[in-house]
Every structure is written in C-alpha cells, then in structure tokens.
Structure prediction request, 102 residues.
Amino acid sequence: MCGCFAIALGAFFPRVAVVLLWIFTRPNWVVGEVGAFGSQWLLPLIGVILLPYTTLTYILLFHFLGGVVGGFAWFFVALAFVIDIAAWFGGAKSGYQYRQPA
Prediction:
C-alpha cells in the first residue's frame, strides 16, 4: 500500500516527491559528495522547478542503477523530458480556443 502511494505521489506531484526524497533519504544526489548532479545544488533546484518529471526520473534511475545513468535509461529520462515539455506547452492550443471571440 505504501508503494502505491509513493508511485501516485511521484506521478501526480513530482515536486513533492523530490522534496520528500531530499528530506527522508541521504541526499547524495543533491549536495555534498559527487552524486547524480555532482556537487551542485543549483541544477537540482532548477530541475525541480522547471522539469520535475525529468529530475525525478533521473534521480530514481541514478539510485536504482547504482550511480550510473547510461544506455537505455536515457530513453526514460528523454520520455520524462517530453512529458515536462507537454505539461508546459500542451495547454496552449486549448487556451487559444477559449480566447477566441464567438
């Protein structure tokens, strides 16, 4: 039951999921030792704000693949990037239809 909640949280609220990962896990992927983002803190922060699904996917793949994201795993990162871009620009056409005079 807890696993289903975690998956749903990541699917519907990826920013909350990344923040909870940051709070409740050892965040070597954020700051400190060389992790998923090196020793930077700005790149993950920008990622959480602008590309939350891409950031969450990269963090999870980095963790589950033993610290290396490569090969076919980049397909999932690219897919998450497409989902983020669709979330940013997908509503433009429907919003344009509502603004047209009748």
The radius of gyration is 16 Å. The first helix runs from residue 2 to 12.
